[in-house]
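Troubleshooting entry. The earlier prediction with 4'-deoxy-4'-aminopyridoxal-5'-phosphate gave an output that would not parse, so I re-checked the input for stray whitespace and re-submitted. Clean input:
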Amino acid sequence: SSIFAAVEMAPRDPILGLTEAFNADTRATKVNLGVGVYYDENGKLPLLGAVKAAEKVRLEAAPARGYQPIEGLAAYNQAVQNLVFGANSAVVRENRVITFEALGGTGALKVGADYLKRLLPYAKLIISDPSWENHRALFEGAGFTVDTYTYFDPATRGVNFAGMKASLNALPAGSIVLLHACCHNPTGADLTAAQWKEVVEIVKARDLVPFVDMAYQGFAEGIEPDGIAPRLFADAGLDMFVSSSFSKSFSLYGERVGALSIVAASKDEAARVLSQVKRVIRTNYSNPPTHGGAIVAAVLSSPELRQQWEGELAGMRDRIRAMRTGLVDKLKARKVAQDFSFIARQRGMFSYTGLTVDQVERLMSEFGIYAVSTGRVCMAALNSRNIDYVADAIAAVLK
Ligand code: PMP
């Protein structure tokens, strides 16, 4: 019989399944709040002007498509380090940070996970409760036992910081802690700067290994403030891993542009780690693709394009904020009993709204509004044309 005869059907990806159901819905008023991408005011995925300009130059230059180095484009990796840590940071100046161009934030996490499994084979890895749904599967796939630390507080819809600290303080030395730099996915609940300082102290005191996932740098407050976590860990002299994604901030999802940065204690250590991570990459996909990284590097290293990009990034950030405060105001105007002001305090693309499974189901069946069953909604899928309809629908299902 076939070697596949006993293969079972894997469960469907819950979010992609939602999009399929949305596409099949024929109601003209339908809204997909289940997505994980930024849509503009017209409900479209933007192609940024800075990206378009850099692509035009590259197309005209018509470069040959040779292999890239295993670690990717040097100009890109340097630009990423400057963005994550600051060009004048000690780790960059002292050559203690190494960066690898990777296939999106996911690819960066995977390369980091595979290398960590070789480096610390017995370490346990912990993620926030809840976390991006791919974190657990990705690290388990790399061979780790994955546990969670307390994070979200359903009462305040913010961070349960006392619970988080208690979880971190109970970890064995050498445990790897996955932290969301900002715009926590799926909750939208972030740590304050003062809380990050406390987390850094605990991580240092307990000899934990920080792995900072930064998929939304620039989406909360701006490049520098959103980089507070990696900067504080670097200032504290800790070894660490950082995964970056430019899927959202450059709207380059399908180009798969991300990076893994690793900070070591010395330049010599960093060089040895570099050689080992190159082996991980070489035996996986050999070297990264050229286009996306070349475009991001071109934008970040041209003062004009960089300024244009920062303006466009601020535009996305401000539009999401306007949708947040708009939804809070509109729900208040509809006299719902609950206090939804937390939506304006949460940051990034997502909000854990507290809507129940039943309420989410009613939004879909009665209104054609699709959201994740956990109550996660994408604030960037709202716009001035659908926000009143969504507010009406939420008010209706709360009754
Ligand atoms: N980490 C988090 C927290 C994310 O939300 C995402 C993407 N939504 C990723 C990593 C993966 O990013 P990419 O799409 O660039 O692989």
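This one parsed fine. Residues 36, 104-106, 132, 180, 185, 213, 215, 245, 247, 258 surround 4'-deoxy-4'-aminopyridoxal-5'-phosphate (CB under 6 Å).
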